[in-house]
Design a protein that fits this description.
- Chains C, D: It comes from Nocardioides antri.
- Chains C, D: One of its GO terms (biological process) is branched-chain amino acid catabolic process.
- The complex is a heterotetramer, with two copies of chain A (332 residues) and two copies of chain C (387 residues).
- With 332 residues, chain A is α/β, with parallel strands linked by helices.
- Chain A is 35% helix and 20% strand.
- Chain A folds into two domains: 7-192, Rossmann fold (3-Layer(aba) Sandwich); 204-331, 3-Layer(aba) Sandwich (Rossmann fold).
- In chain A, helix 2 (51-55) links the parallel strand 2 (31-35) and strand 3.
- Chain A is globular and about 60 Å long.
- Chain C has 387 residues and is of the alpha/beta class.
- Chain C folds into two domains: 14-347, Rossmann fold (3-Layer(aba) Sandwich), CATH 3.40.50; 354-387.
- Chain C has helices at 14-18, 51-76, 90-98, 113-118, 124-131, 140-143, 154-168, 195-207, 253-268, 298-305, 309-319, 325-348, 356-359, 367-386; strands at residues 105-107, 183-188, 211-217, 220-221, 224-225, 245-249, 274-279.
- Mean pLDDT of chain C is 94; it is low at 1-7.
- Classes of the chains: A alpha/beta (332), C alpha/beta (387).
- Chains in contact: A-B, A-C, A-D, B-C, B-D, C-D.
- Bound molecules: thiamine diphosphate (TPP) (2 copies) and magnesium ion (2 copies).
- One thiamine diphosphate sits between chains C (111, 150-152, 188-191, 218, 220-222, 282, 286) and B (36, 65, 67, 89, 93, 96).
Chain lengths: 332, 332, 387, 387
Amino acid sequence: MVSTSSTGQKVTLAKGLNLGLRKAMEADDKVLLMGEDVGKLGGVFRITDGLQKDFGEDRVIDSPLAESGIVGTAVGMAMRGYRPVVEIQFDGFVYPAYDQIVCQVAKIHFRSKGRVKMPMVIRIPFGGGIGAVEHHSESPEAQFAHTPGLKVVACSNPVDGYWMIQQAIAHDDPVIFLEPKRQYHADKAELDETATPAPLFTSKVVRPGSDATLLAYGPTVKTCMKAAEAAAGEGRSLEVIDLRTLSPLDMGPVLDSVRRTGRAVVVHEAHVNLGMGAELASRITEECFYSLEAPVLRVGGFDTPYPASRIEEEWLPDLDRVLDAVDRSLEF
Amino acid sequence: MVSTSSTGQKVTLAKGLNLGLRKAMEADDKVLLMGEDVGKLGGVFRITDGLQKDFGEDRVIDSPLAESGIVGTAVGMAMRGYRPVVEIQFDGFVYPAYDQIVCQVAKIHFRSKGRVKMPMVIRIPFGGGIGAVEHHSESPEAQFAHTPGLKVVACSNPVDGYWMIQQAIAHDDPVIFLEPKRQYHADKAELDETATPAPLFTSKVVRPGSDATLLAYGPTVKTCMKAAEAAAGEGRSLEVIDLRTLSPLDMGPVLDSVRRTGRAVVVHEAHVNLGMGAELASRITEECFYSLEAPVLRVGGFDTPYPASRIEEEWLPDLDRVLDAVDRSLEF
Amino acid sequence: MSDGAVQPEFGPDLAEVFGPAHADGGPELIQLLTPEGERVHHPEFDLDFSAEELQGLYRDMVLVRRLDVEATALQRHGELGIWAQLLGQEAAQIGAGRALRSQDFVFPTYREHGVAWCRGLDPLKLLGLFRGVDHGDWNPSDYNFNLYTIVIGAQTLHATGYAMGMQRDGVVGTGDPDRDAAVLAHFGDGASSQGDVNEAFIFAASYNAPVVFFCQNNQWAISEPIERQSRIPLYQRALGFGFPGLRVDGNDVLATYAVTRAALQRARDGQGPTFVEAYTYRMGAHTTTDDPTRYRLTADVEHWKLKDPIARLEVYLKRNGLGDDDFFADLTAEADELGHTLREGCKAMPDPEPLEIFDRVYAETPPELAAQRDGFADYLASFEGAH
Amino acid sequence: MSDGAVQPEFGPDLAEVFGPAHADGGPELIQLLTPEGERVHHPEFDLDFSAEELQGLYRDMVLVRRLDVEATALQRHGELGIWAQLLGQEAAQIGAGRALRSQDFVFPTYREHGVAWCRGLDPLKLLGLFRGVDHGDWNPSDYNFNLYTIVIGAQTLHATGYAMGMQRDGVVGTGDPDRDAAVLAHFGDGASSQGDVNEAFIFAASYNAPVVFFCQNNQWAISEPIERQSRIPLYQRALGFGFPGLRVDGNDVLATYAVTRAALQRARDGQGPTFVEAYTYRMGAHTTTDDPTRYRLTADVEHWKLKDPIARLEVYLKRNGLGDDDFFADLTAEADELGHTLREGCKAMPDPEPLEIFDRVYAETPPELAAQRDGFADYLASFEGAH
Ligand SMILES: Cc1ncc(C[n+]2csc(CCOP(=O)(O)OP(=O)(O)O)c2C)c(N)n1
Ligand SMILES: Cc1ncc(C[n+]2csc(CCOP(=O)(O)OP(=O)(O)O)c2C)c(N)n1
Ligand SMILES: [Mg+2]
Ligand SMILES: [Mg+2]
């Protein structure tokens, strides 16, 4: 079991997560991985590639095909002192485990007056754009963020993937860990394993700007960066914030930014209706009522089920729809 | 099987629903009821009292103790041409059926290009204030309203209970039907069975006013009516809207009102974070940006799990917290 | 219990596979003490009990019945919001509870007051949940007894996972009796229909986890009779998942003890899960808010009264001179004392402090929740002057 | 298949209850045609097949294999996003599909292309979902064949509910062969672990619903072998729920047909559910995106090649003079023609019109969604001039 610690290697998000999981397992032998096909196969996205070989079947556990069973047994293992990291194969398959997540995982710390900790990470590859069939492109984050007792984070790039997964595993509260599956093998970034990462529950300005603020997380960070780039070509300066944490929200950087720009557009793949954009818009408006030049606008998946993949790119928020919202905001 | 059709009787919400279910079953023999203890017992709240006796065990079906099984078999019955009305015993027990609801009930019409209808009603007694133990006082509406393909309504009084349940059953789309359990046996209202009810998916101004708008549904309608009454004593005129429909929202009356009053407070028992208030605040702000004198404020359950019942009344939004928000809005 | 339609005209003959089913427990019912108080013998599960042990089991049953009666009365007097009665299930719970070793871990439902008693929990602690002052105010690891779980069946998966943790801790099948441990997972007949419970069977079988699934078949899930959940005897469910199932007379504390003990030992030894169906009867209502006259016959209840778990052991003790008048008198006094303690203790239980709720949601409270807390504190404080 | 640890030291002896388990299907495997193409007899399920019937079954299998091969190729050429192959499972699907009567209703998973074929569905319609142009573009009631369901196991509950609907419609157990109907519910070995599937067993047993649970145990759930899901033969799962389970050689189209036919008839007659385990093997990858070399041995695949469902019937037909050269040549031509149609048809499938999605979410589109649609239409139109 050799730790592949090196600095400066270029990694994909999939590799960053894989390395992060490995680090976490090396650091604490209470860390267990569990899920469908996470063993020999390394998961359908290969995020757990090689881990069963190196850490054994007792720590990288192929489970029967039952999500409630996976999360429910992970609860028991956490009660016994383990730190289970559960992989849900695709976003759309988290729902059979929904009851265990919202009634048990989320509530046990509270129910027990803090006596029983629930240090569990539930990894969910989320979002669309991979040309998949139904149920493989969902964005369930709002439902979890609405549930007290859960923390919800989303990574957007290889370096964050590497650090955030380790931070989530080390954290004593249950964390819903969202991974933009479209990004798994898309881009590479330089990983410096000796760096000091930002704390887990913080948002980051990833591109400064002054005319309007784009709020994104997971897969839409890239969309917004591209939009900002395109807007810059037309002389518009857009600030982009990678929220990273969805529950709790880290409103500090968001409010600072909107107070400066006076305009905000929230971009996510989840349905607009009752999506994260609704909460962000409400809070921003409450806190920056007199700084806002326009209402906070929301760009997201339409309020329809995820469509057949041949039209998914029309359904998903893209650069043009983001810029259209920016225009509407600026012209308001 | 005698229809107790009469005009002018005073009924509770429980009785209104019971009569409405009876009417719906008389009107269409494809209507079936299904759930735990709905037969001889008449349900733990007695909403189905007497129906099995009159309509038989084939139409009022006591089910095995499994919510996914109940909703999943109801899907099959709907495909076969029935109109199942499912009772979930308590809000907190809807989650084992969550997968069937969001991935099947909500999506089958879309998946089948409209060829397969899903005329199902899922009745959920919801909300707190009855001194119950954990999981018996939840407000899960935002999660369902976020899901395209579902319609979500909440009744607040006996007369609406009577009409809305019949309308929901007659409707061809799946309806999540929320019943404020705290109101079941609380107040009586005169029921005129010959009246013409308002359409199902409409909101209603239940008290006109001019200083601020209170938006409520289900159990908080009563709270807001009392708050408006109390405010009137202090010379403040509050308009109260009973939303009745949560998905779709009927924004017409809401926007009209807020354009007049310039102020809105949304009141629900669900957690504030990503609750219905977030969506309402976002839409109101977007539509009435220049009419708003203050940001839309939200009063709801705190972002903690529902507490032990001896302190539930402190956790739930009450008259004082509503008036406090009104004050904050007016003073903004 | 079983249904005529179960006979297939092909495939294995179910009656042959399982033996005939009987409404009264059937021949498969493992019994050591009859309802009439006769000691009977069993080829596999016989055990010798000392006078002390028998008195101990009797005492436990009498005291938990008193606990139950008091709690029911406290609910009637408005001191509890609701109470889930164990009346009639004392033998099933005490038999199972006494079969545990301290290193074993228990996952109860909301009705296992008797098992809690055996784990040494102050019974007053059981009342908090039903009074509405907490969700259970004990540390599970202090008693190896989890908090009550209300969502039907959810805890069977936790139990299985906990047992998988024990396997990883190396406390299964080592041969060291003080080290080897097992999990006892409680659930009801109604719960057997939940997906979670069946998934727990699958996981436990798949990993050969050291867990005993202990089902109190009290014949009812609120108003629904066991026939709605299963048309064959419930213990046979386990066989289809590949591990043994046994039906024990749940009103016979000796048999329940013996069978649970053997099943737990099998689990500790690394031989995997067992399903124990304790065949019993819910003599009371489902909870204090239930009205069983709407759905069941008094005659049935009367029938089961003859099988009372306490009465049969009392007859046995008395007939065999295993308890003198002092023993019974002392026990009555002890029960009265317990009742008194419960009544006084319950009424003295303070309401929780509202602001606490904010501190316990997370191990690390996020700033936004802390702000919500502070806002509420200010709000509450704003009334102080006013009143 | 089964695990040493299953022997309890008490309780019913599982080996006795169920008989011994064997890796290769075991003695309980119902077979009418051996891998070598020998016709064997079975005491309960024997059937006579005419030459025409045998040729028909053979033809079906050959054509659906071609369908599968073509679709796999179309995926490789980028015409489909993904494809779930049925290679090796032709006999299980054709045997089951041909056992249906028109009034029966089928709930498939995502792999039942052979059953769809038997229901008369234009195979091109199966490609839409995998191409990404729709979620299945047929009306289930036109074929009594539901849309594919992707969430594992969910459809078994729908099937049970549909069967309960049939009971209420009075089309079960009337004795009229053209009226009595049943439901065929498909699922895989992996699916047997889902709560939903086990709840379906419970509901079907409880209401004695006319449903046949048809499990294609192809030994794998993606990378996980059947042993992870069950340590005893899967068909035995049903016994614990109180209805019969049977294991049939799923690579033997004759046996699968005979067993499914009997099970469906039993359901139509009002005798309730049956579990049929079609013991087969997934010869291909899980889907075209899977790489089975990461988790299984080529030797295993080679072993199963000897049991090929088509080859054995071909041997039998040829050996018994039941198909002349023309028959085989015509069939090859027909398969080529099918391949051609599929290739051309697939490429010609139009992409959906984005705006349609808004109209199909509800039976009655709410105004707010109509507004969203209109806004998007305007937005799209705004580009028209621009480009
Ligand atoms: C998931 C879920 N659904 C419904 C309920 C409501 N409920 C509480 S107890 C009960 C019946 C349980 O019956 P059983 O499992 O036989 O246990 P018993 O109460 O008889 O001990 C029901 C339906 C619940 N607590 N959880
Ligand atoms: C609820 C759910 N979880 C996970 C998946 C992902 N998934 C698709 S197929 C599959 C394996 C299914 O195995 P099995 O039931 O044996 O059927 P087979 O594919 O072998 O025909 C998995 C895990 C899913 N579709 N649904
Ligand atoms: Mg019970
Ligand atoms: Mg399989």
